[in-house]
TrEMBL record, chains A, B:
It comes from the Bacteria. SUPFAM superfamilies: Homeodomain-like (SSF46689), Tetracyclin repressor-like, C-terminal domain (SSF48498). Residues 97-182 form the Tetracyclin repressor-like C-terminal domain. This is Transcriptional regulator, TetR family. InterPro entries: Homeodomain-like_sf, HTH_TetR, Tet_transcr_reg_TetR-rel_C_sf, TetR_C. It comes from Flavobacterium pokkalii.
Amino acid sequence: MARCVEFNEVEKIEKAMNVFWEKGYNATSIQDLVDAMQINRSSLYNTIGDKHQLFMKCIGNYFDNAMMEVKEKVSKYSSAKEALINLITDKAGWIVSCDKGCLGMKTIFEIAPDDCQVRNQMSKNNEVYIDFLKSIVQKAMDAGEMDDSESAEIMAEYIVNSFTGWKQAYILHQNPIKIKKMSEVLIKNIFK
Amino acid sequence: MARCVEFNEVEKIEKAMNVFWEKGYNATSIQDLVDAMQINRSSLYNTIGDKHQLFMKCIGNYFDNAMMEVKEKVSKYSSAKEALINLITDKAGWIVSCDKGCLGMKTIFEIAPDDCQVRNQMSKNNEVYIDFLKSIVQKAMDAGEMDDSESAEIMAEYIVNSFTGWKQAYILHQNPIKIKKMSEVLIKNIFK
DNA sequence: TTGATTCTGAAATAAACGTTTCAGAATCAA
DNA sequence: TTGATTCTGAAACGTTTATTTCAGAATCAA
């Protein structure tokens, strides 16, 4: 038998993720990555793969974490309406909480248009997220807490769309109050 | 006296803009640019400047064109409500009309967070656009064509936010019908 | 035509890029 | 301790990067 891997891959992936998060795919060099991951170049290539493979693992990890977190939070509320309001308010808070961009959105606009492997992964992730949101929206509609003149799916997409817009606005103007206001308008709009 | 510049700068800037549009800032090399612009390396550096300066000129040109176009279109309608509906419908059509991303949005997510020169320019552009939209929204409100329980500015931001979300959705799922539907929901929401 | 000036093309620069290689240290069952 | 195996660090690979340099062609007033 021989030596076995001495580092925790998930841990290293998370460190790499933070670099991609901050700088984006193209602006991140292998040097940046090995520095942040505290891993050897060879170990990186041997155990994880090249830059693109590492990136795929990062966005996978990013989504899994985000999805787990949101599911956990939602499970705390018995009312679908309350769960939605909290989900939206949380997102608005999250957007203004970090000045770096959002890895997901950055990836969609920077990489996805020209990289179908990334696009497929992001598209799948997005669908999973929207399906989840849709199920809560449906519950709210069934409970009569929400206007159901539009389908649950459309409403779910509508909500997710807003998040991207908020991040854009926050990157440009860095005004937390405006983002909070936007989230309130959204909540008002979908529940009237 | 000596020789004078033999190429039309604006024309060259436009060609460069298309490259940045397609590939984004970081993925575009000077080689890509001189190839597309059909200009010499030295001429580029002597008359326009380095990559970053060229990029700044490109996003300036991009915004000026977009702004001119939208103003021209809006001027055709005497009703503010009609103008807004057309502006929104147009944007939805534009989003699904080209498969490459949107230079503006790409720049905001890829470059703006880490490049304050770019961020300031984009932020200024965005403000100008929103101010313009706000003035139309205000007209629609004054004419009683639009619900005025929210300020014109908030409504203008709300509309612009949606555009970014649509582009994201289209990059991921390439479903024109969904984008059209989203624009209809927006129109329904802001005019009820 | 002259002469000062400016544009142009190609080559050169030095640094950074992603990736590979490989000798040697580390590990662990036998 | 041996021997097979695997991880590690550093160096090297060949490209590609953005930018500069410079000799010569092109221009135009005088």
